[in-house]
């Protein structure tokens, strides 16, 4: 598919999903006008909007920081315009904190090779921050306590992505995570949670967010993933960590003059999305079971650990993309977003399924019937 054809298909997908009567995966896309109208409705939101607009991080920005810190059970938090910048700042703070004399390398971070900084940030941690990474495991899951104990390269900070998106939004069990925390304490490692999608992890662990974060030294959360804000991210930790993270925020150019529109949508997203996450996660298992009935379909993980999971089908991505757009245009049913080929596995493609509010009223039969219509169009 050439660039012009791909752009046209993307435009058709946007238009068809926006007009669709039913959506199974992800939120309904919006135009700029529609996003602006939604923002205007927040004029009646239950926040004090008769205060001055924020200036370099005060006002509504501080309101969001304090609220997220409380949600995560941490003393304080710092707001950043992007998650990439937020994690760079957090890792820089820990790189400057030497260990207690144990054999370690303060500028080396242990993470998974599928972690966001390795896959999606153009190696910013190495090119901009001078950090080195090591991989305690290459298995499609987080490292185990045994792997960490036997790992023979020194490092100072352990970064855990909860859930690990590229492996299928997978999470360890609570006991497994607790054992990893135990090893980190034994070795005096700093633990940083890449919690871009941490909000939906509490259901799987059967623990509150403060319990999950209690033994982590710092936590990053996204404002637009899951809770649907326009943009933004936060890192949380103790007061000293947050104070130093804000210094790095300034150095990286993240001390913006005003950020109230994005911050206001983040506050609204916390109110709107967090209360219904459990329903979305529970229904994701129903959706996954129904999708798995399609010929050659595979769900990963099975069952899903959160309200997001991977769906694999034995067809080329381009054919699946075209069939999905055609179904949405013809029947007003939008099942999936974009597909991508599985690299060395020809003829096999994957899409990420996100069970959001629009999917909650789908029954298993409606899903299997829609999948049958979708596959007929390939």
Shape designation = globular
What is the strand arrangement across the widest sheet?
2-8-7-6-5-3-4
Helices and strands: which structural class?
alpha/beta
CATH superfamily of the largest domain: Type I PLP-dependent aspartate aminotransferase-like (Major domain)
Task: Assign a percent range to the helix content.
Answer: 40-55%
CATH class of the largest domain: Alpha Beta
Q: Tell me the number of strands.
A: 13
Round the Cα radius of gyration to an integer and report it: 21 Å
Q: What is the number of independent domains? A: 2
Family: Belongs to the threonine aldolase family.
Protein name: Threonine aldolase
Organism: Kitasatospora paracochleata
Domain Aromatic amino acid beta-eliminating lyase/threonine aldolase: 57-307
Description:
This protein is an alpha/beta fold and 378 residues long. A hairpin with a 2-residue loop joins strand 12 (340-342) and strand 13 (345-354). The strands form 3 sheets. The protein has a 7-stranded mixed sheet, sandwiched between helices. It has a 4-stranded antiparallel sheet with strand order 9-10-13-12, with helices on one face. Helix 13 crosses helix 15 (364-376). The chain has helices at 3-19, 32-41, 60-72, 83-95, 116-119, 124-127, 145-150, 174-187, 201-205, 209-213, 239-251, 260-273, 277-291, 317-331, 364-376, and strands spanning 22-23, 76-80, 108-110, 132-134, 157-161, 190-195, 218-222, 233-237, 298-300, 308-313, 333-334, 340-342, 345-354. It has 2 domains: 3-36 and 275-376, Aspartate Aminotransferase, domain 1, CATH 3.90.1150.10; 54-257, 3-Layer(aba) Sandwich (Aspartate Aminotransferase, domain 2), CATH 3.40.640.
């Amino acid at each position: 598919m050439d660039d012009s054809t791909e752009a046209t298909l993307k435009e058709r997908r946007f238009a068809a999903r926006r007009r669709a009567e039913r959506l199974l995966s992800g939120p309904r896309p919006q135009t700029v006008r529609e996003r602006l109208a939604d923002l205007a409705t927040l004029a009646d939101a239950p926040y004090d909007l008769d205060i001055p607009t924020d200036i370099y991080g005060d006002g509504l920005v501080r309101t969001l920081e304090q609220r997220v810190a409380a949600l995560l059970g941490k003393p304080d938090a710092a707001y950043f315009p992007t998650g990439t910048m937020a994690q760079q700042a957090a890792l820089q703070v820990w790189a400057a904190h030497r260990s207690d004399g144990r054999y370690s390398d303060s500028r080396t971070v242990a993470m998974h090779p599928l972690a966001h900084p390795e896959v999606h940030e153009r190696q910013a941690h190495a090119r901009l921050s001078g950090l080195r990474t090591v991989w305690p495991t290459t298995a499609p899951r987080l490292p185990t306590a045994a792997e960490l104990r036997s790992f023979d390269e020194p490092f100072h900070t352990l970064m855990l992505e909860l859930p690990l998106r590229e492996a299928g939004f997978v999470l360890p069990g609570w006991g497994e995570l607790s054992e990893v925390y135990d090893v980190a304490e034994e070795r005096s490692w700093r633990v940083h949670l890449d919690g871009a999608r941490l909000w939906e992890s509490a259901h799987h662990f059967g623990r509150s967010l403060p319990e999950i974060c209690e033994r982590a030294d710092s936590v990053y959360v996204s404002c637009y993933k899951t809770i649907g804000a326009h943009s933004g991210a936060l890192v949380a930790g103790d007061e000293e960590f947050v104070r130093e993270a804000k210094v790095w925020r300034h150095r990286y150019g993240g001390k913006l003059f005003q950020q109230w529109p994005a911050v206001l949508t983040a506050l609204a997203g916390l109110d709107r999305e967090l209360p219904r996450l459990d329903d979305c996660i529970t229904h994701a298992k129903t959706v996954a079971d129904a999708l798995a009935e399609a010929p050659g379909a595979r769900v990963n993980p099975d069952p899903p650990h959160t309200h997001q999971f991977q769906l694999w089908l034995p067809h080329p991505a381009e054919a699946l993309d075209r069939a999905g757009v055609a179904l949405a245009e013809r029947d007003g049913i939008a099942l999936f977003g974009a597909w991508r080929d599985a690299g060395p596995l020809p003829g096999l493609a994957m899409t990420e399924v996100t069970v959001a509010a629009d999917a909650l009223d789908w029954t298993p039969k409606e899903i299997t019937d829609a999948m049958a219509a979708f596959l007929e169009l390939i």
